[in-house]
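REQUEST ID: PR-0412
SUBMITTED BY: lab tech R.K.
PRIORITY: routine
TASK: structure prediction, single protein chain
INPUT:
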Amino acid sequence: MEALTGFASFVHAAEQRSYVAAGRILGVSASAVSKSVARLEERLGVRLLHRTTRSIGMTEEGTLLYERCKRVLDELWDAEATLMQSRERPRGRLRVNLPHVVGHHLLMAHLPEFTARFPDIELDIDFEDQVVDIVGGGLDMAIRSGHLPDTRLIARLIGEQHFVVCGSPAYLASRGRPAVPSDLERHACIRFKYPSSGRVAPWAFAAPHSEMHLPASFIFNNTDAGLAAARRGLGLAHLPVYVAAPRIETGELLPVLTSFMVPFGSLWLVWPSNRQLSPKVRAFVDFVLEKLQAQPGAFNRVEEELSSFSTERGVN
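STATUS: complete
OUTPUT:
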């Protein structure tokens, strides 16, 4: 404890350049801070601070020690804050960023239950298909898909995403049903363009069909636009199963090529690694995982989710 007190006294004195100001923060006298730093210097055998009648400055050794002490003490204070906050009721504004398709098709239906459970949390949700800087943007958390290269983020897996190629009954009646992926070369394909990069997304076919060149009869940067185009008979669309399944159930869309499909990226909850998991963030993380992972068909394989539809309607 004496060593920890010495390090805390040293860090605050170095930051405030004053024993008096450091003492106010620590709730002790300036003399107590000075003695604590002196004992630390004696134990380490080096001078850490320059003292003058007007101010305090760090020595070269003090500068080296300060950087490491600051990180360690910040972690300790964050840990203490997390434990204290864990006893509190979740409250405050929670800033969340998520893709349109996830928000509209997976999350929106559950928000009434979330607000009923946690009435003191104010949700501030940005629907955004562009990849944003969570740390720089001051966001509490986000839902993202695919690869996560940002090492500043902590991630929890929601589930694997599965896709299905589907079209309207009228379109398939007029153009025929593809039996293998190469048949798509003779079809109108409705493609999705990533808003962040402008790159047209591939379709989730297993090898050797994964590198196939597909027509791009229509290109949209919005999944719901692709869904609407498929429903109107403009072509075949490659859609998340959780987006297409309700339309397949009603017969508005029919799935094709399901035996050729493979998982296509994962869905993650992410938040900055330099922030403790506050009660409001923990509440949202636990709620989303509980609801989405238990949602029937949200992250099932295509065959599991659509076998009943395929058997019923005699599609491949």
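NOTES: DSSP finds eleven helices and twelve strands in the chain.
REVIEWED BY: pending
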